[in-house]
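The protein record now logged underneath.
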Amino acid sequence: MGSANHATFTVERVAFGRNARTTDPAARREFTESIVPLFGPAYENETRGWWIDSHDLLKASREAEADGLEILGSVHMHPDWHRIGPPEERKLILSERPTPMDQHVFGNTGWPVNLICYLERRGDVMYHALAAWAPPSPENPHQPCAELPLRIRTNAVVAV
């Protein structure tokens, strides 16, 4: 949640939501009828492909509105699934870049900012990469998502 000022989006707060894939018949139907045929059998796995619970989204939207903010987009993670997942799901190399499924979701929500955090284990160390993406334009939904410049500001005071 945050605000938009010209080409700058300022995220003020993050809201979390449950995965409706395991509880909502409409979400299950969407995956069975649309997502799996479009993006493959890896999405039959209910723990892959998050679908935010509509009640949680409505709650976040109302909280944002009450505070003079708006929902700007989404945040989700990509693990190094191509290394740790089942062998049949290792074809698609994940990173902080949008997958075809991400592009589909970003285009359908129309939210202006979508963050992807890629997590990768190398030996005993975890690494992460973070990137921000704009959805494809409605006129060209098959064009790639545009990468957005990302700056992270903290509230820490820095002495000069």
User: Anything to note?
Assistant: The first helix runs from residue 25 to 39. The radius of gyration is 17 Å. The helical segments are 25-39, 54-66, 81-84, 100-109.
